[in-house]
Amino acid sequence: MKLLSDLSVPPGCALVATGSLARREMALHSDLDLLLLHPEGVEPDVGKLWYPLWDSGWRVDHAVRTPAECAGMMSADSTAALALLEMRHLAGDAELTARTRELVLREWRVEIHRNFDALVGAAIARWRRSGSVVTMTHPDLKNGRGGLRDLDLLRALALAQLCDVPALSAERQLLLDVRGLLHTHARRRRDVLDPEFATDIAADLGMADRHELSGEVAGAARRIDAAVTAALAASRAALGSRVRRVRRPLDVDVVAAGSEITLSRRPNFSDPALVLRVAAASARTGLPVTTHTWLRLRELPDMPAVIPAAAAEDFFELLAHPEVVNELDRHGLWTRLVPEWEHVRGRMPRERTHVHTIDQHSLETVALCAAVGVSVARPDLLFLAALFHDIGKGYGRPHEQVGAEFVARMAARLGLNLPDRSRVQTLVAEHTTIARLAARHDPTSDDTRDLLLDAVHYDRDTLDLLEVLTEADARATGPGVWNARLESGLRTLVDRARRALVPATPLRPHVHAPEQLTLRRDGDVVTIAARGHDPRGILALLVAKAWKLSAVRIVGEHAEYDARPTVEKLDDLDTGAFIQAHKSGVHTAVPVPPPAPTWLSWHGQVLEVRTGVRVGALAALLGVLPEFEWLSLTTPGATMIVHVSLPGVVDRRKVDRDVTRVLGNG
């Protein structure tokens, strides 16, 4: 660039380029990123240097620093650090530039050992701000996950000698070409690829339409993202740790090794449910699964036609965590569970209001449903409907119908009974009904109310679930879709429909406990039947043995607890040892559960409590309840739902206050 070659660099100083100028990747409206280096103790006169640039009309981002100040930037600002690593000499003292580059690189290789987590944290914060290039309908080509900034991150890790530079030149060139054309068509600096520009850019690149362009960009970003994930894992392994990694069991054949999840030393690779146990453990603990573990899980056989009950629980538990589902999909494991996902992965929706691809919109909807899961009676059905609500798009038929067919098939695989299959099928088939009625009809009309009741088959649970799904779907679509008008229409219409229905009354459970303590096995679940025992003693033993509780039924002194081991294998279960461990009275302590969102309601004399599943929650609840007639507990969708009948005169305010204190944030 002649403008730069004509600049008057002060004596003893050096002018260097950083950023896209240094990489020779500038677009039409990119900034000129320039740095003037000067020796220690010298104050250069920069007035004549910058004025020609300011007068030229270019946007200039400039700085004046010594070599030591540049080295100090390695720890002060990760974004600036990545830019300095790629400095290129333009004019002046070339030796000063070389000395600065060497000092910066040496400091970078030292600093990354101290601040690797901060570097990763900055990248994660950037991804959260800008989203994913793979999944957004308006992708940020520069800052999004899988974008150009991630290529800079890869090079920085390679310069730190933590990983190799992957072969991504074609992917880089595609993103640069698209970004360059975006600047041309937008006539301004622009990094977000909007649909209105994508059509012209696709034509310039010889592609059929914007959808083909989006597919090519998403494919390139997906490969960049995979390379970044692998590079970060390799870097973390290269940096190592002086602390011995403690292995602790999380589930059968699943262990936490330090801050990662891996497999036991001799896992059972004939068990297809192992993949769900690993994924659910990651969702439950927030720990990442090692890449090697994901690769080994590919060796597992396919799931049976009907997924076992314990595996189905794990499936529902992981649904609320999009990052885990995406990891499963990235390693080719998700479509083995949900084969219909192949059709919507990376697919752009036709509606311009969407900000995500169909697959990621579905996961975002599930996550929003999970955030309010304790407000509904069947969060498992809600999560499944949210996952499948748009999965029928792109088949040339109404997507509600196609999705309803798909979800009915999946519900059968998960072992749901016929009424529950009908509910989840209705949710998918009618997931646009409330929004349509609120927009086109009078929400206060009895006729409109009856149309909604017909759609949900006059079922209170389906109505409650559809209300939550409608809001989550709108919020996940894009800005402005969930608005005051839709919210008002939805609340009015659903409230009127709810008043027309008679709420269901929780039923007393049936319990069979003929002896003091017995164990019986049904598939992957063990039922502990007890008579005349303090429930907290049984719960303490289950905690000590790391058993996962899924259901409880207590009537008077008779009780049944459905649970499954997470450390020992069912084939190794010793009933006599279990009974003896309980009789010994050694196990009495139950951990205090951490607070979590908790929802309470009364149905006559029956209290209903909904809260997140966690160790110690039921024991804490039993500790504050007055004497009760019967109690039932279920755990659909990782939500603990308890119904307890409290006879006689009960101080409901005190009960609510006590339950909220031990389970919620009160």
Automatic annotation (TrEMBL):
UniProt-listed Enzyme Commission number(s): 2.7.7.59
Annotated ranges, domain HD: 358-459
Record keywords, A-Z: Hydrolase, Magnesium, Multifunctional enzyme, Nucleotidyltransferase, Transferase
GO molecular function: [protein-PII] uridylyltransferase activity; hydrolase activity
Protein name, as recorded: [protein-PII] uridylyltransferase
UniProt xrefs under Gene3D superfamilies: cca-adding enzyme, domain 2
Domain of life, source organism: Bacteria
Enzyme class: transferase
Cleavable signal peptide: none
Species in which this protein is naturally found: Corynebacterium humireducens
